[in-house]
Every structure is written in structure tokens, then in C-alpha cells.
Design brief:
globular; 1 helix; 6% helix; twelve-stranded antiparallel beta barrel; 13 strands; mainly beta; 255 residues
Amino acid sequence: MKLNPWKVVVLGGWLAVMGQAQVTRGGERAFTGVYEAGTSPKGTLEFEQWVTWATHKEADADNQGFEFRHELEYSVSDNWMVALYLSDWQAERSQGDGTSVRWNNVAAETIYRLLDPTVDPLGLAGYLEVKGGDKLLSLEGKLLVQKNIGRWIAAWNGAVEAEWEGSGLDEQNGVLEETAGVSYGVKPSLRVGVELKHEVECADWQEWEKPVFYVGPNASYRTPRWFATITPSVQLTHDDESPDFVIRLILGIEL
């Protein structure tokens, strides 16, 4: 059988790239604001602790707050993951109201992977979240797109969220959001990259508010049993109702 030399070169290059690939499982997050299209192996159970710190709003220079999320994540199959946000709550300090602690909500999410980001030309997954709390109900859907090439991971999310708030859930709002990120594997245990977020809210699905844009670097460290990912980001727009600086840390532990 006669081999085409160009096919041999292409095949050899592809095998070399795949040999250098550092594939992350679905539960090992390379980002804190971008969901990846990969999923963990069937039967994987993981606990994630989220901590988000935000500070300095133009409308309240003394404003700063912490948000906490406790999440339990389980892989029903190699392609399907479900998660329960056991509790979302926050502690906030502002100039006029002092310090306050407030419980926000509980939520459930599911991610189903359609295409693998390493094997297929493009990774693709669907995301659905239902959230409920005191005077709050929301539904959010996301399209997760990702591609792994060697040590690189590139991911994009497009999201639509519908919110109902108030004592009678009669206040309706919509949120459109895009997040994107690129991550590079410096070594098997360490990744570095950058994340971007663009968000715009729509009051009563009629009046669009100012868009908000954030960008920042990130780093992720992982071991066989746990990982930690952190992203500090700054607001590039001038929305005085949104934080100017945000840091998010996600710590995941396989149970």
C-alpha cells in the first residue's frame, strides 16, 4: 500500500498534538465564570465551594460583599451531569445599611454533553438551571461551546435567563449573558488564562439597561482529588450599579 507523504505528516502532527493534550474533566474547572462542555466520568460525586468577593460601586464607594455557594455535583453518565446548589447566601456591607447577611436561594442544574471538545471538531453541551428563593424564581438556559487543542482550552457560553421577583413574583426581568475564556496548561497541575463576561438586563422584557463588561486573568491548580480556580476581574464599562472589581474562587473536592 502506497502512503501519501502529506497524510503521514498531518497524521504525525495530529498525534503529537494529542500526545501533549491536557484534558480536564468536567468537574475540574479551568474557569470560574465559563462553563465547559466536558463532563466527568459516570458515578463521579463532587462538592464545590464558591466564594465571590465584589467591591467598590460608584453609587456606594464603601460597598463590598461576599457571596457563597455550596454545590453538590454528580455524573449520572459520561455525558450527563446534575448538580444541586445546597445554598446561596451573601454578606454585604454598604454605607447606608451597614453589614447584612442574607440567604438568597437554592437551585438545581443539569448539563448534557452532545459533542466531546477533544475528540469531535467542536465540543457542545446544553445547560439548564432552575433557581428558587424568597420572592425569587428563575430559569436559565445556556449553550456551552468548547474546543481543546493540545494544552489550550477555548470556551464560550451564551445564556438567557428569565427572572420573577417580588412577593407575588410579578416583577419580570430578562438577562442575556455571554462569557468566554482561553486557558493554557503550563503543566498537568497548573493552568492559566483569561476570562471575559458581557451581560445586559432587560426590565420587564421591555427596557434594556446598560451592558456590563468584565475581563480578568485566571489560574487553576488541580490534584487527583481536588482543584482550585480563581479569577480576579475588573469592570470595563461604567455601570455604577455593578461592582468595579470582582474575585471568584471555586474549590472542588471529589467525594
